[in-house]
Amino acid sequence: MTLLYFTLRDYTFPKVEKPFFEDKKLFAFFALGVILGMIIFAFESWGRTISSAETVLALIMGFAVMEELLKLIILNFPRFQRKIDTAFYGLSMGLGISATLTFATVYVFILEVDNVQALDVAAIFILGFLFVLLHGSTTALIGVGVARGDVKGYFMEALVIHILFALLYESFFVVEVFQPPLNMFGLMGAAAIVVWGYQKVHRLSLPALIRDAKRLKQRN
After folding, report:
1. Range of the domain at 161
2. What is the spatial distance between Cα 158 and Cα 138, in angstroms, rounded to a whole number?
3. Other C-beta atoms within 10 Å of 209: how many?
4. Is residue 186 situated within a structural domain?
5. Angle at CA 133, nearest 5°, toward 201 and 153?
6. Contact in structure between 162 and 154 (CB atoms under 8 Å)
7. Does residue 1 lie in a domain region?
8. Is residue 115 part of a domain?
9. Residuewise pLDDT in 10s, the chain (220 residues)
10. CA distances from 74 to 63, 81, 148 (A)
């Protein structure tokens, strides 16, 4: 919620006289994201139990496509198409998804590991924050695409970010192939991708959407 406020504070009262989104809908999409996060976590956990070394790459790609398509289907309903507030609701839904995934990941980790140290929990929370940036940025990008009427372009950008992140992130845990400290490069690459993605949404995509909408309104 802190990140949501930080990102959207310039688009609502008191920074602007007329907010670009409705608070009620914003929190409704966040709640929807929380539910979707639980479903995604359960499905991916089941998928990991039946995966093998030969199928892990296909699972990574498949999960990324599935998750981004799910976001697109929800945000691309006719009532949300070509509406500025869809981009903000997309961001809220993405952060809701990541909130559930992060909590569930930490909880399962604590249950499965004996003698959990505070440092271990802190590390997992940090890794979980990468998922916050991932789903926040990719869902917001899809929302921007729906608002602009350029669904395909923004969807593909979100999908590429997700796939690259997933591949680099998973390489950190495949210590049999990428032994320490080599595996750290995968984690750093994954972090760089989602930090860049979120910064793009926050500093470029959302401000540009607002500027273009204002310019179009002035012409009309």
Report:
1. 22-219
2. 5
3. 20
4. yes
5. 45
6. no
7. no
8. yes
9. 789 989 999 998 888 888 899 999 999 999 999 999 999 988 888 777 766 666 777 888 889 999 999 999 999 999 999 999 999 999 999 999 999 988 887 777 777 766 767 766 777 888 889 999 999 999 999 999 999 999 999 999 999 999 999 989 888 776 566 677 777 888 899 999 999 999 999 999 999 999 998 887 777 5
10. 17, 11, 16
How many structural domains compose the chain? 1
What is the spatial distance between Cα 202 and Cα 94, in angstroms, rounded to a whole number?
A: 14
Q: Dihedral (C-alpha) 79, 71, 33, 166: value to the nearest 10 degrees? A: -160
Structure tokens at 171: 């390489």
Check residue 170 and give left, alpha or beta (phi > 0: left; psi -120 to 50: alpha).
alpha
Q: Which are the contacts of 209, defined by CB distance < 8 A and separation ≥ 6?
A: 84, 87, 144, 147, 148
Does residue 172 belong to any structural domain of this protein?
Answer: yes
CA atoms within 13 A on the CB side of 18: 3
| Locus of tokens 């995509």 | 205
